[in-house]
């Protein structure tokens, strides 16, 4: 079984974040890369997604992420055998027939659940998606489907920290104008964006109080994929996953 950083989102919910370990991909993606569009062999990526499905106990659905705020609701497995849910940066389901997941390599993988309502969601919150409102959109969609904000549990997964995510001054200002908590200064004294703090701020504004966080920084922890670290080293990198499923 692959190693997963498991989190508690309530009874009957299985949720966690993968690392780089336990997969079949060769260097430089070694080894549990779940991203299909990063230069890795597709057969290896699909094998890795299969290992993730074994852990989840069901097929895993990923969206085609575009750094937006679209939430896609999946009521039935449909094309779950393909693992493709269409364009979306958040996937929500009330079905136990499959898991929903997002893939990241510095962005925030956010997992949500209302176990009593039987609803779970996986959210991809990068800088653009955070500013576009993907967190609020995911929570609103859960509430519209019967969740209670007082019961919703959230887990903010590993992401690049604010002291490592350097951006131009104007970019920081633009993000902070929408999400004030995202304003940051890097360890180099330059403008930064704190994605994790931004997601936490958005959850608080949405009324979600039961929030846990895996505070590991992807840029500094080589157990995880980091697009920014790999780019600085002149090489491609893979993607790890945040995945959640109603266990039935």
TrEMBL record:
Keyword terms of this UniProt record: Copper, Hydrolase, Metal-binding, Transferase, Zinc
CDD domains, per database record: YfiH (cd16833)
Pfam families: Cu-oxidase_4
Gene3D superfamilies: CNF1/YfiH-like putative cysteine hydrolases
Keyword Hydrolase tagged: yes
Catalytic activity: inosine + phosphate = alpha-D-ribose 1-phosphate + hypoxanthine; S-methyl-5'-thioadenosine + phosphate = 5-(methylsulfanyl)-alpha-D-ribose 1-phosphate + adenine; adenosine + H2O + H(+) = inosine + NH4(+); adenosine + phosphate = alpha-D-ribose 1-phosphate + adenine
Family, per entry: Belongs to the purine nucleoside phosphorylase YfiH/LACC1 family.
Function text: Purine nucleoside enzyme that catalyzes the phosphorolysis of adenosine and inosine nucleosides, yielding D-ribose 1-phosphate and the respective free bases, adenine and hypoxanthine. Also catalyzes the phosphorolysis of S-methyl-5'-thioadenosine into adenine and S-methyl-5-thio-alpha-D-ribose 1-phosphate. Also has adenosine deaminase activity.
Protein name per Swiss-Prot or TrEMBL: Purine nucleoside phosphorylase
